[in-house]
Design brief:
heterodimer; A: alpha/beta; Peroxisomal Thiolase, Chain A, domain 1; ten-stranded mixed sheet; three-stranded mixed sheet; 15 strands; B: 3 helices; 0% strand; globular
Chain lengths: 423, 87
Amino acid sequence: MQDSLRDPNRIVITGVGLTAPNGNNLSDYRAALLAGKSGVVPYETRYIGPVLAGVCNFDEFRYQKKKDRRRGTRAGSVSIYCANEAVADSGLNWEQVRKDRTGVYIGITEHGNVETENEIFEISKFGYDTSVWSHHHNPRTVANNAAGEVTLNLGITGPHLTIGAACAAGNAGFIQAVQMLRLREVDLAIAGGVSESIHTFGIFASFASQGALAKHADPAKASRPFDKHRNGIVVAEGGSLCTVERLPDALDRGAKIYAEIVGYAMNSDAMDFVLPVAARQAECMQLALSRAGLDAREIDIVSSHATATEQGDIEECVALQTVFGDRPSLAINNTKSFIGHAMGAAGALELMGNVPAFADRMAHATINLDDQDERCGLRQIVANQPRSMERVEYLLNNSFGMLGINSVLIVKKFPREHGGVYE
Amino acid sequence: MAPADIRHVILDILERIAPDEDLSDLNDGVPFREQMELDSMDFLDIVMELRKQYRIQIPEADYEHLISMSSTVNYLQPLLKDAPAGV
């Protein structure tokens, strides 16, 4: 163990910043997930009329000037909040941190739609005169916007990327961080995923046209993965960014360690623009397990991706059955049932909402699972009430997206005696 | 529009562009940039807001006239002489 503690290829999460529709920090968010508290509310956006959404209420100006918020985007604002919270939580002496050796890697599903829709609406009031199109449009809509705004805010001069990976993006942000840390490209990464998607009517309208936008008289019951009466996606905003470091660096500074990232994988279905493929999802999970040197029997909790769409939930259940079989000690849960689908933030929020299970050994539930679809009939799905676990050593986090992009992350509890946060 | 009304319009725009600044002591004879954080993109916001509110096109060659409150009001006076106050 002593030798492996000096292994620079071991990568750990040392600080957490997040905003979710049901919590603006990890402890509140975790408490909401264990209490079954939804963050889905009625929401009004342009053109499409009343919809349901997961809406965040973090303080945008805690770490950002009003002027910079006006200049930037909601994705940037979410990112700045989460990045600052993560840095503060990490215990890093920020003044001493080498900014040129710090990287920012933020997964995102889409970017630019919000600002483009806003500008088109604005010029519509001027007879579509493009001379009133904002000069802020380009810096707001470049694909690196979210991560770039973090570098501006925190004075980071190392590399930054906003990683477009549809709804697999949250895991992709972490994976990029792991790779760049192992390559010694950076010494510290701020990584995860964000979403501003509720501010574009187009995402709601497109899901509605696809027959995949959730409706329910009670907003809290609208997001119903695996349930027979599910009727689509609840779009959400949010973000979760973490400080990620090589283990020896974290140990040298006495960091608290939330989890070790022990396995990851990404692959592609190469089949369809929208429809998922269970076989490729299963391969992605198996590749992550293989890289972690784990057998599927060692995973304690699977944080599922299921979005409450007809095909998506069924395909993932087929993939989960293929990889994990019927082992009853496994818990499978779903965070989207609480907060909706936080798009680029989903993978990162869903991972971090489960990490405290290392301490409380509770698998949070999948709420709104009143009548489980027999085609999603996995017995291990934790329905409606949290499940107390014998042990929680490994979490596997699924995130899949359109164009057949799959991502899987596996994290391990870190021993308390070496700096692990959890008993 | 009278010079005082034009000043009010510009101040209103500046407050939106620089919401973190206290502009109550703005000195009309001193360049904006010496009194507040104002970069080229902010500056373009002034031009854009005037274009939106009053449909006036300020050519790039004339941007130098927008250096301070006094010079801006002087420059805009003929352009806004027929514009009603309080638009």
